[in-house]
Amino acid sequence: MTMKAKLTLFFFTLFCLSFSQPLVGDDDIPAFSPNSFVLFQGDSITDGGRGRTMDPNHIYGQDYAYLIAAKFSAYFPDRHVTFYNRGVSGNRVSDLVKRWQSDTLALKPTLLSILIGTNDAGVAFDKGVDPTAEQFQKDYDALLAQTVEALPGIKLVLIEPFGLPVGKVQPVWDKRQAALKLRSQAVEALAEKYHAALVKPQEIFDAACSRAPASYWIWDGVHPTAAGHQLLADEWCRVVRATWPAQ
Q1: Theoretical Cys-Cys bridge with 186: which of 113, 137, 162, 194, CB 3.0 to 4.6 Å?
Q2: Residue 169 forms part of a structural domain
Q3: Is 200 helix (H, G, I), strand (E, B) or coil?
Q4: pTM above 0.70, yes or no
Q5: Structural domain of residue 197, as residue ranges?
């Protein structure tokens, strides 16, 4: 083999390896340190149809939590990061209160991600009741206070509730949007109080509607499509990466 052929083979091999190796650097999430325990908590958007057993085929559901767990478990198997999903469809913050000890504190996560508020904003239209945004914030605040007391040093990621004017929510979108905004403001205030990473999906979905119809991203006004979940997962990673950069 000539020297030219050897050099060609060498650089071709490097090129192939660049696509076969896990991404690091800018794509890393330093918050996923060795032996971390990442817990996703929330309602149906987080539940994603997850299984209720330890069956690894269904444990994460089909949502943003699954996309995040799959990607970084594959990238960094040597870190032994554990991902759990404890989202429950239909939950409001008052439901989290009832199961917080068993489904959150008892698991002792090192990073806790919470997406709640969509159902709190929607029950006025679906069930004829209207819990206030003030009560939402009060209950949420109590959960976070319990968490930081029980788990000192825990990293918190708070995701604001979101939606788009699609399907059954379209006729009442103005009222629903106002209710979502009040609860998003509550989440933002709590993120500041507890020094949490804050994910603001509404801005991302609104911007995405310039590229495709709203129903492409959120099929019923509430639940993201596969494309929508990828948007949410990407924004989650971006915010978490920026909040806890490499030391």
Answers
A1: 137
A2: yes
A3: coil
A4: yes
A5: 30-243
